[in-house]
C-alpha cells in the first residue's frame, strides 16, 4: 500500500499538470512516432543511375528489362564522374555503364560486362547485379542460337521484342511468412526511446535524495524495497502511456505496418519496459551524486542498445559479442518481436518474455539492496 502512494505521487509529479503531460507524454511520443514513421518507411524502388553508350539493341533491351522488374527508378546520368559523385554522396543506391559496342561484342562472342558502381554492397546493388547478369546471359544464349541458324543479324530485334512481352511469367504468392523489412529499424528506435526512461528514473530518485525527500520518507515505517517498488510502479505507468501513444500513432495515423497484432506488440514492449525500469532502479541505487546522471546514457543506454541490436543485427557482430548480447534486454525484445512479426505465436516467445521479466525482478532486487534512502546526496 505504501508503494502505491509513492507511485501515485511520482505520477502526479511527472504528468500531473498540463506542462508535465505535454513534456513527458505528448511531445516525446509524437517525436518518436514521426521518426519511426518516416525513417522506417522504406522506398520500395532503388534509385539507379545509368549511361547507355551502346548503339545496338541489347543496351535498350537491358534498360527495358530493368524497368519491367519494378524495383528500380532508372535515371540517365550525364557523365561517369557525375554518376560516381552521386553514388558517393548517397544520392543514388547504385549505377551502371553499358559500354560502347556492347551489342557487337556479344554478337562476336566476346565476354562483355556492364560496369557496376556501388559504394558498398547492399540489397539494391546485389539484386541489380543479378538482374544485369541474368539479362546478359539470356541475350547471349539467344544470340548463340540465332548464330547457329544463320539468322543472327535478321532476327535479333524480333527475339528481343518477343522477350520483352513476357508472355510467360511467374506469379509470386506471398504468404507473409517473414518479418517486415522495416520492423528491425522501427523496433530499435522504439527501444532506444524507452531506454530514456532509465535517465528519467535515475533523475527522480537522485533528486529525492538531494532534496532529502527520500530521507523523510524513510523515517516513516516504510522499508527500502517499498520505496523502490513505488518508484518502479510510477515509472511503469508513465512508460506504458508513452508506449500506447507511440504504437497507436504509428499504426493508425502514420499507417506504418509492424506486421504483428497490436496486443502482442504491446505485451513485448511492456515486458521490456519492466526490464528498463529495473535497470533504472539499480543504477539509481548506485548513484550518489546528481553530477553523475549524465554518465548514465554513455555507460548504460548507448552500449546496451548497440550490443542488443538496435543499430545493426546481432548476427553480424563477432561471436563473443553475440554471446554478450544475451545479457542485455534489447536482444530478447527484438528477437521476440521479430518472431511474432514472422507469424509465430506467444507460446514461441514465452522464454523471451520470461527473461525480460527476470531482468526486471533481479535488477529491482539489486536496486533495493544497494539503495540507502537514509543517505543524502554525496558531496
Written account of the structure:
The structure is a single chain. This protein has 379 residues and is mostly helical. The chain has helices at 2-15, 18-39, 57-69, 80-88, 102-107, 123-149, 152-165, 183-210, 213-219, 224-252, 262-286, 294-308, 319-324, 329-341, 350-370, and strands at residues 46-52, 72-76, 94-98, 115-117. Helix 3 links the parallel strand 1 and strand 2 (72-76). The longest helix has 29 residues, at 224-252. The mean pLDDT is 78.
Give a concise summary:
The protein is mainly α and 379 residues long.
Describe the largest sheet: 4 strands, mixed
Distance between the termini: 33 Å
Average pLDDT for all residues? 78
For the largest sheet, list the strands in their spatial order.
2-1-3-4
Task: Determine the structural class based on helices, strands and strand pairing.
Answer: mainly alpha
Write down the overall geometry. Answer: elongated
DSSP helix count?
Answer: 15
Low-confidence stretches: none
Instruction: State Rg.
Output: 29 Å
Number of strands: 4
Helix content: 55-70%
Report the sheet-strand fraction.
Answer: 5-15%
